[in-house]
Amino acid sequence: MPDYGHTLSFGAFLTPQADDPQRVVALAQASERHGLDLVTFQDHPYQPSFLDTWTLLSWVAASTQRVQLAGNVLNLPLRPPAVLAKAAASLDLLSGGRVALGLGSGAFWDAIVAMGAPRMTPGQAVTALDEGIDVIRGLWDTDTRGVLRAGGGYHGVDGAKRGPAPAHDIPIWLGAYKPRMLGLVGRKADGWLPSLGYLQPGDLAAGNARIDEAAAEAGRDPREIRRLLNLGGITAASIDDWVDELLPMVLEDGVSTLVLGSDDERALALFGEELAPALREAVASERRAAGTTTGAVRSAASLAKRAPGIDYDAIPPALADLVVEPGDRGYGAVRSTYIWAGSPGLVVQPRDAAGVAEAVRFARTQDVPFAVRSGGHGIAGRSTNDGGIVIDLGALDSIEVLDPDRRVVRLGAGAHWGDVAATLSPLGMAISSGDYGDVGVGGLVVAGGQGLLGRSYGLTLDHVVAAEVVLADGSLVRASADEHPDLLWAVRGAGAAVGIVVSVDVEAAPVGDVVLATFVYDATDTAALLVAWADQVERSPWELTSFLTLVPARRDQPAIAQAMTVWAGDDTEAAVAALDPFMAVGPVLQQQANLLPYSGVMQAHHARHEGGAPANIRGGLVEHVTPRVAGVLADLLAAHESPMLQLRAVGGAVNATPADATAYAHRTQNFSLSAITTASGRAALDRRWDQLSDDVTGVYRSFDLGDDRLERAYPPATLARLRTVAATYDPDGIFGHDLPVHVPR
């Protein structure tokens, strides 16, 4: 296999001289400026005239923007692999995924021993490197649960905690020449990095053959392994001669990364600006003529985990680098949501609206379900699946103030509300948006948006003035009062049923600091507490919004209720007057209040989603929390039929919007109820919820999994209108599988 089809890249191999430390940094910066893709440094820790290579890599990472960085190659005997794994992952995270790990088994053993490392024979050094790779990769593997036990007699860890995971798949390249080291490259490495000066004619071909043989024996595709080569310097008289000299190395010896060993900026400029484009053009021409297959190659282990029903070979080229499959590193971070564990066959992560459109066109041709995810925090679990496709909007996370005077803000669907709050708070603006900052814009805004500013502001969707929507046919349209107003109406409350909302324009409220008060009550007399709290909420000015969360009694404590209450303004005297009556609604165990920016209430933690046991949730909207409603909820809590019960205030400005203004039509209720249980507790919760059937006059679609939730989410007139809109924009019923609004044909 003379040409492995890898994309060509070009790098610099610099000497880390300590006598003029800024010169090597300047050369690294110049390498980037001259178009090189990679900057590498020698690593000889025992050499007193050299800088420490890892310190230099870190400094250069902070001094550059684009280039990949690596040791060439790092001396493993003097760099414990467990510590090196953390150092590499840390630098990769800090640099935005620009680290590669070049490793060597060690040379100059007298100097290594003088630095305190034990002497090894060549065979022992190879074994130690083999063990070290397992340790490094194991510590990066945060998708695998449990501590790491790996390595062996030279580099062993027993119970090490994994992490952090690097920002990308850090490739491990080995400097290798002898058969056993070449075999290790084939079995475990991502690249072979020899120096041309140490090779004899035919050594590249022989080395490739040994690597390929070892790869095949390990069940790997030899194309998984990149072939790199350090060049000693410029040897040709002209660029054409240089191309002629290097072209056979690419086409016959499979070399795809050429690294120039030079500390002369003129040579680096010539290499990056003239040789690199000329060689790329020559290689591309030869590959076209030969029909060479190019591009990334997935491992055999990864291919074996692909899901049936998905034509992976048909993934559009524009999405090829934006997908995560079950066998990929990082799959564990994208497979599940906050609540639900999933096992999708493909996660597509578009970077823009055009990518979302491409993903929709592909997904609808596949014989599997597909889901759409913005923040992945939805309790109802509609943003992952098993064996299907997930379109992950996380990269569409822009936050842009379009009109400061009108406070119109454009939000990408993948943005998190905590980040929105952090951007808007310094500008004296806020958008009411749930009660947790990790929630994504897209999922919340198309469902409603019951937030902690809700009684003063309304639902989040009440202030959406425009939206960009990808439709079922892959087209991108703008919905506003002037363009597709029927689609804008549907987006606000039923967006998931008509398309994928990729951005929204929202009118923010003029909000500076707010008062956040937290009351913790003894909820032993649950029914009385609920009635008193709800009555006081309804009596309060619209500036006050309160969410009450209850948990059942435990062995060592009574039932507890926590009220999270926000006064939408910085008038502390008015806030105290409104909050003081809440001290009397039940026995207060704890209470505190703070004046802070809304961004202090709504913070994004960007926590990794691991999923868990499938949740079951029942919800409902009620006009008032009557003694009968409170009694049913109290019995539910006392019977431990739900580990968490929540009541959200949704009156005030929410109900000031006409019922027919949006697809969210529930404009008379003052409270939103929700209760969570496990799969085994679903029947009991359903029976209890049936007792509320006369009181529940609607449901918030994100907080209910009842069989009749479609009719309760959308009253008859709303549902009829929604079906008309859906038939226009999604005639084949591609969207809304979780809550189908389409009339079966």
From TrEMBL:
**Which cofactors does this protein require?**
FAD
Give all residue intervals belonging to the FAD-binding PCMH-type domain.
340-511
User: What are the record keywords, sorted?
Assistant: FAD, Flavoprotein, Oxidoreductase
CDD domains given in the database record? Tetrahydromethanopterin_reductase
* Gene3D superfamilies to which the protein is assigned, alphabetical: 3.30.465.10, 3.40.462.20, Luciferase-like domain (3.20.20.30), Uridine Diphospho-n-acetylenolpyruvylglucosamine Reductase, domain 2 (3.30.43.10)
Signal peptide annotation: none
Q: Which Pfam families match?
A: Bac_luciferase (PF00296), FAD_binding_4 (PF01565)
Entry's PROSITE patterns? FAD_PCMH
Q: Which GO terms describe its molecular function?
A: FAD binding; oxidoreductase activity, acting on paired donors, with incorporation or reduction of molecular oxygen
Q: Per the similarity annotation, which family is this? A: Belongs to the oxygen-dependent FAD-linked oxidoreductase family.
Mind telling me what this protein is named?
LLM class flavin-dependent oxidoreductase
